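Possible regression after last week's pipeline update?

I re-ran a chain I had predicted before the update to compare outputs. Posting the input and the new output here so someone can diff against the archived version. Not blocking, just want to make sure nothing changed silently.
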Amino acid sequence: MSLTQKDLIDTITNELGVHGTPISKTQVDAVLNRLSIVTARTLKAGGDVPLPSSASSRPASAQRAPAVIRALARPSPSRPRRWSS
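New output (post-update):
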C-alpha cells in the first residue's frame, strides 16, 4: 500500500481532530517537512534516528536506513513524496 504526502497529512489532521487535538493541515505539513529535514541531516552526518516500530527497536542509521528514510533524505521536487505502509 502506498500513501501520498497529502493522504498522510489528511489522515493525521483528521485523527488528531477526532481525539481532541485540533490542528491544521498546514501545521501537520510543516511538522512533516521539518521531520524530513532533521532526519536527513542526522543521517547524512552518520547519526541514528530512533523510529517507533513494532518490528524492531533498533534506530535507523545511515548504514541500515529503511527505504522511507532514504527517500526522505532525497525528496524529488518533481513528484510528491510517498510513504509505504
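Follow-up from reviewer: compared with the archived run. The mean pLDDT is 76. Marking as no regression found.
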